[in-house]
Amino acid sequence: MRRRSALCAVLLSITLPVISTAALANVVISDDDFVPAEWIVTVTGVTNGATHAESRPTTGGNPAEYRHMTHTLPANSSITIVHLYIAGTYHPWIDGPVTAIDYREDRSQTSPPFPGSSVGATPLIVQDGINYFGPSTTFTHTSWGTSSLFGLTANDFTSATNTHPDFSVCGGPLQFGFARSNTNSGASSYATNHGIDNFTVTVRNTLTGVGSTGAAPASIRVVSANPFNTEVTLELTPGHFGRTVVAIYDVNGSLVRRLENRELWGEITESHWDATDDSGRSVASGVYFARMQIGNAAVQQKLTLVR
């Protein structure tokens, strides 16, 4: 921690070359199958013997696998559980400072103990071992519904000691997840059963060229029709030598097709996408994003496919 702070003091005392004023590289961290090994579950608060359990049904989600949770609440008890996704981490020092975070999840209750039963819910950030809880999105519905929060800043996430995460280039690695809680103020015990699916965090950042030495801006642009019907041609300008990765993502941030993964010498080159996924299957009409990453820089281009 002290070493990173010292390095940041040096970094912030100099003027860094900007890779691209338009290089807002949205980084998407998501999970829709909830493999248990990719999640850590921690009890952060419990009273009077409340307990919890998790499972991974393969059907019944939105649409398939999901995380099912049960909170068993004796009389006058409460519980708060943190679910941390460990298969995706964002590094502000490497990936750029965070300007905002968008959060999305699908959730529902099953067999509520009484009409109007609610489940406490918040998005979660963990940085340097500290839990930061986002805005409350408590829900009562018993069918799958989507909760979306857009443009969250560091001040929207607060720890138990009323501090906020550091979204700057000096901030430590960020991991994401969600919290669930219940309180039973009555004299009888009951249980709540609820699920989550399609957990998605979109990190919006500003890349400042850490590790760059004044290289030309990277860019990706369409040089054929857009909207397109069968194939689109992309012009790639890496700007400097390095391994260049180009891929197509859908609007949910899911990988659709890998186009390039090779060393380029900074020269302008072209790449083509024939509107198929990595398995060769045609994809549906809609909005997609072509993303090019070279070193610590990333740029993207919106594509519209019309069949």
Can you describe this structure?
With 307 residues, this protein is mostly beta strands. The chain starts with a helix and ends with a strand. Strand 7 and strand 8 form a beta hairpin. The longest helix is centred in the N-terminal third of the chain and has 11 residues, at 2-12. The protein folds into two domains: 21-205, Galactose-binding lectin (Jelly Rolls, Sandwich), CATH 2.60.120.430; 219-305, Immunoglobulin-like, CATH 2.60.40.4070. Strands 1, 3, 4, 6, 9 and 11 form a six-stranded antiparallel β-sheet that branches. The chain has helices at 2-12, 92-95, and strands spanning 27-31, 39-47, 51-55, 67-73, 77-90, 98-110, 120-127, 130-133, 145-152, 174-184, 190-205, 219-222, 232-237, 242-250, 255-264, 269-273, 286-294, 297-305. It is built from two helices and 18 strands.
**What's the SSE pattern?**
HEEEEEHEEEEEEEEEEEEE
Class of the largest domain in CATH?
A: Mainly Beta
Which percent bin holds the helix content?
Answer: under 10%
The termini sit apart by: 52 Å
Tell me the total number of β-strands: 18
Biggest β-sheet: count, sense, barrel? 6 strands, antiparallel
Quaternary: single chain
Q: Globular, elongated, flat, extended or rod-shaped: what is the shape?
A: elongated
CATH superfamily of the largest domain: Galactose-binding lectin
Could you say which structural class the secondary elements and strand pairing correspond to? mainly beta
Low-confidence stretches: 9-24, 207-215
Number of helices: 2
How much is the radius of gyration in Å? 22 Å
Tally of discrete structural domains: 2
Q: DSSP strand (E) fraction?
A: over 45%
User: What is the CATH architecture assignment of the largest domain?
Assistant: Sandwich
What's the CATH topology label of the largest domain? Jelly Rolls
Report mean pLDDT, rounded to a whole number.
86
